[in-house]
Design a protein that fits this description.
seven-stranded mixed β-sheet, 14% strand, 14 strands, four-stranded antiparallel β-sheet, alpha/beta, 14 helices
């Protein structure tokens, strides 16, 4: 097929362009090199917070999302785990969460000695609020609201339900940096939120996570759980004048040593100032591809919740009127053209029915059926409008060839 040749040529063009349109630009490289030259890779190898690249990241991250405190860790999974401990989770507590999320979310609950309880999502891939309220019981203590792929339900309604039932709201904002609801950064609606800095997120540190909160006690506990020992709290911003309170807490909590290194932090800080521009770029590409896909009777695109400003660095869609074999053939054809499209089948770590490390209280059959017909496509930062047009047409061609 002539389109095969065109697609492969497109991939070569994109690979060449990656050298200039990339997450890790010269500012990031210079920042990391500066940290290496200082030979201060450990976050507490310093005398003041200003000398720690990790503490500097925490300060700027808190400012960026509008939080009072930010605690950097080695992963978002660690941050999720710590946020639950800080919020008072006890072994045996039940933690509700959307059934559409990544395996790290229920894993963090299990690590904390609690029980994950899955809630169906609706056709727009966000937590079904009716199913959420239906599954609240006297044993339900927490909601870990996962903004999978940057999608969020009506957060005013979520907060009202949680407050009415005495459920503590924690936010898994791994995919949600730059995602706003009613003008407010997601991650600012519960008592604490956890963001990811893994390479497939809005900012790229390879690995890394940041927990944010406005609650001082939660923040100080998180510092200690993450591995702030002895008097190293002095090397955090936001601890000034709180020495008596912090010294009373030191050695009272187990240290998990989830600290972020200065190398990761120095790669992340320069990227914070680029988030708005990245969001604008991602959303423009998303809307361009959306317009192409809306011409197909075999593609159903989910809607974003009212009042949500997305940061659409990926696209999901549901195949309509296609058999599993036709869907598989379409995915295989696209892979042959260099377009990697994921599907929620097989050993995919986002398929909740694969998570056999805890007992599932509910089947969440609607979510399972929906996900098995759903495609997942990353919209990489370096993609330009002409790339989007060619990719969109390749998807339409592949569908036509397999139906």
């Amino acid at each position: 097929r002539s389109s095969d040749l065109a697609s492969k040529h497109l991939i070569r063009e994109i690979e060449d362009r990656m050298t200039t349109l990339r997450m890790i630009d010269d500012a990031v490289i210079d920042s990391v090199v500066d940290t290496l030259k200082q030979a201060r890779l450990f976050r507490y190898d310093c005398d003041t917070a200003e000398q720690s690249a990790t503490s500097v990241l925490e300060k700027h991250f808190a400012e960026a999302v509008g939080a009072k405190y930010a605690i950097a860790m080695n992963s978002c999974s660690s941050a999720l785990f710590v946020s639950m401990l800080c919020a008072g989770l006890k072994p045996g507590d039940k933690v509700l969460m959307p059934a559409f999320t990544f395996i790290a979310v229920p894993s963090s609950v299990v690590h904390a000695g609690a029980t994950p309880v899955l809630v169906d999502v609706d056709e727009n891939y966000v937590m079904d609020l009716e199913d959420f309220e239906r599954k609240i019981t006297p044993e339900t203590k927490f909601l870990m609201l996962s903004y999978m792929r940057g999608r969020a339900p009506d957060l005013h309604k979520v907060k009202e339900i949680c407050d009415r039932h005495g459920v503590v709201l924690l936010e898994d904002a791994a995919h949600a940096l730059g995602v706003l609801f009613d003008g407010k950064q997601t991650g600012k609606f519960g008592v604490a939120a956890s963001f990811s800095a893994q390479s497939y997120k809005m900012i790229d540190g390879g690995e890394g996570g940041v927990m944010v909160t406005d609650d001082q006690t939660i923040a100080f506990k998180a510092m200690l759980y993450a591995g702030c020992y002895e008097q190293n709290w002095k090397k955090h911003f936001g601890t000034e004048g709180e020495g008596e309170k912090l010294m009373a807490m030191v050695n009272t909590l187990p240290a998990y040593n989830f600290r972020m290194s200065n190398l990761s932090a120095s790669a992340l800080t320069p990227q914070l100032g680029q988030v708005d521009a990245r969001v604008e770029h991602f959303n423009a590409n998303y809307n361009r591809l959306k317009a192409i896909f809306e011409t197909s009777k075999n593609i159903r695109l989910p809607k974003f919740t009212d009042k949500l400003r997305p940061a659409a660095d990926s696209m999901q869609w549901e195949f309509k009127g296609m058999s599993p074999d036709q869907i598989a053939g379409t995915i295989t054809q696209l892979a042959g053209e260099g377009i990697k499209v994921g599907v929620f089948t097989g050993a995919n770590a986002r398929c909740f029915w694969n998570w056999t490390f805890f007992e599932h209280e509910y089947e969440c059959s609607y979510t399972k059926d929906l996900l098995q017909r759903t495609c997942d496509l990353r919209l990489r930062l370096f993609l330009q409008p002409e790339d989007i047009d060619k990719m969109g047409q390749s998807v339409l061609n592949a569908i036509a060839d397999n139906t």
